Amino acid sequence: MSPALAQFAPLLAQVTIHNRTGGNAPCQAQQGKVFCFGWAADNFDRYTTPLLNQLLLVLIAVAIGFAIAFAMALISHRRRWLVPSFTGATGVLYTIPSLAFIFLLLPITGLGWTTAIIVLSVYTLQIIYRNTVAGLNNVPMDSKDAGRGMGMTDRQLLWRVELPLALPEIIAGLRIATVSTVAIATLMVFANVNTLGAPLYQQIDFKTNIVIAGGLSILMAIAFDLMLLLAQRLLAPWRRSQREATP
Amino acid sequence: MEADGRTPAASVSYRDVTKRYPGQSSPAINHLSLEIPAGDICVLVGPSGCGKTTAMRMLNRTVEITEGDILIGDTSVRDRDPSELRREMGYVIQQTGLFPHRTVADNIATVPKLVGWDRERTRKRVGELLELIGLDQSEADRFPSQLSGGQQQRVGVARALAADPPVMLMDEPFGAIDPINRERLQNEFLRLQAEIRKTVLFVTHDIDEAIKMGDRIAILKAGGHLAQYATPAELLMAPADDFVEDFVGADRALKRLALMRVRDINLWEAPLAFVGQSTAEIRAKLDGAEVPHALVVDSERHPLGWLSESDLRADTVPEKPDSGPQPLLDLDDVMRDALADLLQTETQYAPVTDARGRIAGVLSVEIISEFLVSPEAKVEEHDAVERPHGQ
């Protein structure tokens, strides 16, 4: 344990050192002020790289997490006995605190993007897997019966009936997973990836900085959420008409 | 699918079929043999748990046969790839099983797409079927949830007919529909069937539906035993055993009326009074007539009404007698409906006309009640004597 911890210590030290550098003297003097527009306008470009990094990190992590969780859901779909172990395994992974997770990966993948992507992808598994399984389970029996009775093979039934009908729940899972990934991505500064967490932790006592870095992160989460909601509306138009028909 | 459109219906033959589920001591279907001629509706009926759905599902191999064989034409279903086999069978189920995420048109096009029809052919076929089930073309792009239950079930039937299958499987297709719409859908389907002549395997638990829909009825009892396989009329006249008798119900003589047309019974003759004829002649005819009233008809023998006592006091037969001819029945009316008409209008007699509206005879409540107690329909009193209540 201790050698690994020793490896981790400089990282934390780095964060505290960063804390003292940067900033803007006249604005920092007004500690009580919540937001300093002048400073924000002058210094906005320092958030561009963290913002783009975080965006990329979230996209990659959710894409990988989705690919794995979706594959797991398909594998366990026709092998029901796998569901409890898959749910259990992804559940256990979900409980690992993110700092501890980075720390655990340190001897294997070191610090950097790989570690960050692994951590974030793993956290999405539970939510995406559970929602996909639930979506597939909720496909009406008679739709499946009719599909099979009309001569669909298992594969045709899956892609033409079951998955389209499970889509709203799958996207609902993606929405939760993406929003939480955006939040956890800020912490990936501890894996030495320059996300919005970097400026955030650098000047933790400077409110304007907190508002910009935190605000950008929140906006990113909201933007992802709305985009996925829109995708759900477009991909499952029958859902809305169903609601209209049965008020 | 032939070049000229129609696929001919195929006969279906169950040969000593048994289904045993693993871990169950008694079979679900026990040595079932049925011959279903091409183009007939065979209804599988029986109490719940009798295995009627299992029997049907073995035909499309959604349930596998344990012993015996089922032939479609001369080909065993065992020799067919299950998916290909099912694409050649229409499949209609109780809750419609329509795909909620697909439009009406896409639902109907399911099997044509599976068997690889081109777009144009599929589109044309969907249009034909919408017309056949009486749904407006504008409904084609709606989702099933936007249709009424009756419309959904019609789309279910259209979807089953899409690739013109020689055989149709219908599992309680009208079971979830309210009674008024069910009756309408049943009639529609019978009209459709007269046109398309598919071999239909129809599952229901409702004996009235079975009698109405079936050319042949297979009554199954618990344990998957075939109790009787017969035409509806045979079933009502000669139940094979106590089970069938019970299942068919004590009112089976009345049920027989549903199978009969007015032309199937010997009608009475009423003295005819032509408009303008002298009433004295009519009076003479009334003595000893089967019907004690004279029916006024025009020169074409179209009934106009009944001659009343006051009408008879005039010299000649009037054009408009005091009482009209209602209810006016047709030779092709179903006997049960005719009886209902008689009872509803509270009259003893109803003139019956042929297809051209000319008088063919008179039906009375008495004729029907005589028929019900005649030996060929008489069953109830016999029951009451032989079997005590509560059995």
Polypeptide structure, described:
The complex is a heterodimer of chains A (247) and B (391). Chain A is an all-alpha fold and 247 residues long. Chain A has twelve helices and no strands. Chain A has a single domain, classed as Orthogonal Bundle (MetI-like fold). Chain A has helices at residues 2-20, 25-29, 37-43, 48-77, 83-95, 98-109, 113-137, 141-149, 154-185, 197-202, 207-235, 237-245. Mean pLDDT of chain A is 83; it is low at 1-6 and 12-23. In chain B, a hairpin with a 3-residue loop joins strand 9 (216-221) and strand 10 (225-230). Chain B has helices spanning 52-57, 82-87, 104-108, 110-114, 119-132, 149-161, 179-196, 207-213, 232-237, 242-248, 252-259, 279-286, 309-313, 335-344, 365-373, 380-386, and strands at residues 12-19, 29-36, 41-45, 67-72, 75-76, 89-93, 167-171, 199-204, 216-221, 225-230, 272-274, 295-297, 303-306, 329-330, 349-353, 359-364. A six-stranded mixed sheet of chain B has the order 6-7-8-3-9-10. Chain B has two domains: 12-250, 3-Layer(aba) Sandwich (Rossmann fold); 264-372, CBS-domain (Roll). In chain B, helix 5 packs across helix 6 (149-161). The A-B interface holds A 140, 142-143, 145-153, 156, 161, 164-165, 167, 236-238, 241-242, 244-246 and B 60, 62, 82-89, 91, 93-102, 110-111, 114, 142-143, 145-146, 159-160, 169.
Q: TL;DR?
A:
The complex is a heterodimer of chains A (247) and B (391). Chain A has 247 residues and is mainly α.
